[in-house]
Queue: 2 jobs
Job 1
Amino acid sequence: MLESVVLLAIVLLSAAQAPVGSRKQSIAHRGASAYAPEHTIAAYTRAIEQGADFVEQDLAVTKDGILVCIHDLTLERTTNVRDVFPHRYTTDVAGASQLTDSGAPPARHWLVNDFTLAEIKRLDAGSWFDPRFSGATVPTFQEAVDLVHGKAGMYPELKDPEFYRRRGIRTDVLLATALRKNGLVANPKTPMIIQSFDDEALKHLARDLPQVPRVWLVDAASGARLDSADKLRDIARWASGVAPNKAVVQAHPEIVEWAHALGLTVTAWTFAASTTTFPTVRDEMAKFLYDLGVDAVFTNNPDQFPRR
Ligand code: G3P
Ligand code: CA
């Protein structure tokens, strides 16, 4: 009984923060990542300049417990860590669910969580994208807050919380602490939405930080998690929205109606000029927003968002 009351309160608080049917919203995916290296201050700055409603931060944790903005659990795809710390790799990445392939076996990985912030700040996070961005660094979440706060919303993603739990680290607690410290819980100047593929982390946050909307990510391989109104009803007990891969929405457009009937928002990902199969990425986003009825989209090209 008590649990039902708590969950009802969570649903009501979340609905108050994330009304279905309000203005369509753009989320700059890893910043304006079509124009600047993902998750750099340059990419976040361009996103703000291009009018993004939200700027996304994928979050990892350093060896000394600092939240940093980087998509992968590892450093090798988007920094020069191989050059700076050639011997600091590991081949033991048990429990990591989202690794990029780094070559022939045994695969060598430079885990963010094996490096201190001071070490990570020595890395170049821009040259891989374009030499013009040489010298860009991996931002801390605090640096992202300092930049974005008051200029756009923020949309942090807890990346692979299970990997960190196995290491004794609660990323949901680190994020909740950071949001409280910065006055970012229900701050109208800086709308905040937390996202994760990990339902356990979101369930913790539903209890710990119920005022902050929580969006559950669903990839193309897991579309069956949203294939009935009953499943969505369960999700609505701890999430305020779902964020399916766009292929899931295209295959099952009825998800949008089911979700909206339960007060859940629907956010589709990811829309990029470099990969769209439509004439333009603007056309593709317009189809999902205005024909299929999703509430928001993650895009690498916030300047192409079709505002109506
Ligand atoms: O978070 C939404 C979308 O960004 C999920 O994909 O892999 O780019 O984090 P990913
Ligand atoms: Ca993401």
Note: Residues 14-18 have pLDDT under 50 and may be disordered.
Job 2
Amino acid sequence: MKYPWWKGAVIYQVYPRSFHDSNDDGIGDLKGIVEKLDYLRWLGVDAVWLSPIFKSPMVDFGYDVSDYRDIDPVFGTMDDFDLLLEEAHKRGIKVILDQVYNHTSDQHPWFLESKSSRTNPKADWYIWMDGEPGKPPNNWRSFFGGSAWEWCEERKQYYLHLFAKEQPDLNWRNPQVREAILETIEFWLQKGVDGFRFDVVNMFYKDAWFRDNPIGEDGQQYNVFNIDRPETLLAVEEIQELVERYPDRVTIGEVASPMGFYAYLEYTKPGRLNLAFNFEFMHVPEFKASLFRKMVEDTERIFEDLSWPCYVLGNHDTRRVRSRYDGENSIERCKLLATMLLTLRGTAFIYYGEEIGMEEAVIPYGEIQDPEGKNLWPEKPGRDGCRTPMQWDDSQYAGFSRVKPWLPVNENKREVNVAHQESDPNSLLNHYRSLIELRKDSDVLKWGKLQVLESSQDVFAYLRSWRGKRIVVVLNFLGETTSAGLQLSEKAQVLHSNRRQPGKVCSLHDLKLHPYEALVMEVE
Ligand code: GLC
Ligand code: CA
């Protein structure tokens, strides 16, 4: 049986503004990415997912699209994109595009037309509601703060925006809108892209009666009627049907739902999306074996053979994983998490810079760029801290650009940079690279089933097996030597570890682990 490529894949997220600047304007661009494709090939990833590169006023840095079929000049031209696609494919790297279809920019021609009158041909392409100034139609809140409704003088009506007011929500109940979006998807399929990441895909439809969301005792609003509406699944099936007409493409949904696993599963049932980001690792509050073990057990139990799991440690909306947990030795702990990410059963996502241990930057209030941070500071500092320039070397702007970048380069660039870590065999970067290599050559790691093993409390251990071959992974979450506590009596050979040489044979029943050791072994 042939498995689709994306099941065993490692997918690398590039935030294009922050990856590499080729033309000295302080902002990353497509040619900059092309210049770094050899790095990505060296790292061994199967695919890159590019955060939005389309024409945009950049209120939400590309997640506010004003033309779905053109490249924003800040990133380059369509020729640059064609070049990127060609050069990536030459190197065996697939390209996945971010598609933002819950909303457009308020500068999209569709919205400009829609807001011009109540009777224009696109009058019903967005979500318009009657009301009076100061009295929005219901209590829904924008995820970036304030009411989700904005008054429009031209129409003397409100429009809905679940994000910034410059990001009006499309009306998915209008068949013309669905049609227009399917056509856009097809445009990129015909160009030869290898897949899509669908932004907030569980928000496309809203409650048909626009009922108020319930409010909890703490005054918090529950997102019940503005997201996760069942109709959305029908739209997803329509999209999937189109994409499946083109071989070897992948669809990935950002299902940002309070229902977590349940929603991920719903969106990835047969005929729906191939993958839904499993965000649960990002919510683990402490660096503890039991907490990560629970997430994996839940993932395995819920997904079973019903759909294919995936794992994510970080992305452009979340605090960088290295900065998430207090305590020392954060690099050793990142190595452990990398070993876990790359040996679990499921597609693995890496957020740019994670592989060198980039840290969350503190951005002073006056320099905040992100609309979330601008509106909600200090309650929420915004997401700029995880979007700072990729650190290629220790030069003034870390090899990202020759001019001052759009966000400051992190102070730690001296050690935390690609050049430095490339030449250090014990670096986090080489840890990632060798694990990806191991995974690539191992059907057990790519496809094998997973069984969580009994182990001592601070250890998380699991067995992967495939056609008689078995690999055991043992992770010590403690900064001390620990006995693994495995109930296995076989011997096993080290394939990969942050603390011992590959090739050594150990017996599993009295296995002792070094502090923060992440050990991958083949059972003999
Ligand atoms: C998604 C994106 C986020 C963006 C939002 C609105 O959550 O990941 O960056 O701000 O959608 O498009
Ligand atoms: Ca540039």
Note: The mean pLDDT is 97.
